[in-house]
Amino acid sequence: MAKFQSLSDSEMAVMKVIWRSPHPVTSSELLKVFSESKGWKSQTISTFLSRLTEKGMLKVVKKGAANYYQVAVTQEEYRKQETQSFLENIHGGSVQSFIATLYDLNDITPEDIEELKHWLDKR
């Protein structure tokens, strides 16, 4: 991916389905999933697939008349880039600031702190 771009909630929903798929997917396969759960139409799916391709998240392979979409960025690669972007943009790159915010919000438990200590000790 050339320049990192975060995904919208809808783009993320599409990517989660594609990441879970053991093979490249077609827009028809995605339509089956999202027409029931979200009421999306074919054009909506096409729009998201185009955006995800432009963002470098997907590659398109044409087979006959069908386009098959395959992962260009793994879920782990995306998670790393999204986390780095979040830390830089929201916390100025400071992990301490991030953890302090979680602590101040009571979103981090003593068990979490112990788990972090053990993880850091292993590093």
Strand order of the largest sheet: 1-2
Summarize the main sheet.
Answer: 2 strands, antiparallel
CATH architecture annotation of the largest domain: Orthogonal Bundle
Q: What is the CATH superfamily label of the largest domain?
A: Winged helix-like DNA-binding domain superfamily/Winged helix DNA-binding domain
**How far apart are the first and last residues' alpha carbons, in Å?**
29 Å
**Count of separate structural domains:** 2
Overall CATH class of the largest domain? Mainly Alpha
- Secondary structure category: mainly alpha
Instruction: Could you tell me the CATH topology label of the largest domain.
Output: Arc Repressor Mutant, subunit A
Structure summary, number of beta strands: 2
Q: What percent strand?
A: 5-15%
Low-confidence stretches: none
**Rough shape?**
elongated
Percent of residues in helical segments?
A: 55-70%
Task: Please work out how many helical segments DSSP would assign.
Answer: 6
3D architecture notes:
With 123 residues, the chain is mainly alpha-helical. It folds into two domains: 9-71, Orthogonal Bundle (Arc Repressor Mutant, subunit A), CATH 1.10.10.10; 75-122. Helices cover 62% and strands 10% of the residues. The chain contains six helices and two strands; from the N terminus they run H-H-H-E-E-H-H-H. The protein has helices at residues 9-20, 27-37, 42-54, 75-91, 95-104, 110-122, and strands at residues 58-63, 66-71. Strands 1-2 form a two-stranded antiparallel sheet. Strand 1 and strand 2 form a beta hairpin. The mean pLDDT is 93.
